[in-house]
């Protein structure tokens, strides 16, 4: 059972910044890109990187997320020794609490980690969209003999104050961490992806658990404490596409990135769904083939199985089972599973939740801002 590295995916966040999309659903389980859910990208990275033991730490509204992951067969993680394991919060005593922070969540699953006696622990987030080979990061971690390695991406200097910034020497050894600095010294933003030597991390986690002033968070507490103790910590620079889709605007931007003009673009900084060498896997559904009616007009869009389209779809993403009526228009929008856009309805720059019905002749959205309609709503009048 002993492994060189295992992974824990933090997937319990409430996702309050995604507003209506996470009222009844965990953020990592929100639909994305027509046929995926957000967590599929992290799980696929684990599978493609040959990480064979993955624990998924869940908490908020976990039903859809648990059902989606199942036994992990979609990602080749249905294994007898290892595979994917769902790790919901639990208590050994009355009056126990939920996870009180990302570090606390890992500490409370110490028994799971210890089963595999890993040399290294990979900590991941379940709500980021990206493709990454974790074994390349592990190789860097081992070459530096690092106690902790933190993945970073270079962001525009005007955006750096929104992130945790790693200040490093020329060899990328970290000497300072600044959480959302007003005047950032560089643009190396933490991606929330960490590799730790397990014995060193365990020591700091147990110490942090006794600190009543701590928020038990990796970024706010664990990383600064390890720096203060003088641990060898390095920044691993990732040059590929990465986006934290924790807000409506970032979710929207990442979705629109999927339908750029060239789906086969070789550029590293673009999100490429059509790259056969690094596939994104997901649980499949038994929907029939899509049907495109004789009156349909479709351009620059992703339309998956089960969709029936008679109207106009432009620069948009349609998930499973969406129905678009005659003379209906969908422009610059994301339509989630089993939604119905009736005859003559118009949807512009909007995110339409699952099972929404936009009634005949109604108009949703405008060209200025993103409009969101929550799951199951029936829209009978104009919504802007």
Automatic annotation (TrEMBL):
The keyword ATP-binding applies. Transmembrane segments: none annotated. It catalyses: alpha-D-glucose 1-phosphate + ATP + H(+) = ADP-alpha-D-glucose + diphosphate. Alpha-D-glucose 1-phosphate binds at residues 99, 164, 179-180, 190. GO terms for biological process: glycogen biosynthetic process. Pathway: Glycan biosynthesis; glycogen biosynthesis. The record marks 59, 98 as: Could play a key role in the communication between the regulatory and the substrate sites. Its EC number is 2.7.7.27. It holds the Pfam family NTP_transferase. Residues 7-260 form the Nucleotidyl transferase domain. The keyword Transferase applies. Keywords: ATP-binding, Carbohydrate metabolism, Glycogen biosynthesis, Glycogen metabolism, Nucleotide-binding, Nucleotidyltransferase, Transferase. Involved in the biosynthesis of ADP-glucose, a building block required for the elongation reactions to produce glycogen. Catalyzes the reaction between ATP and alpha-D-glucose 1-phosphate (G1P) to produce pyrophosphate and ADP-Glc. Homotetramer. Belongs to the bacterial/plant glucose-1-phosphate adenylyltransferase family. This is Glucose-1-phosphate adenylyltransferase. It comes from Thermoanaerobacter uzonensis DSM 18761. The gene is glgC.
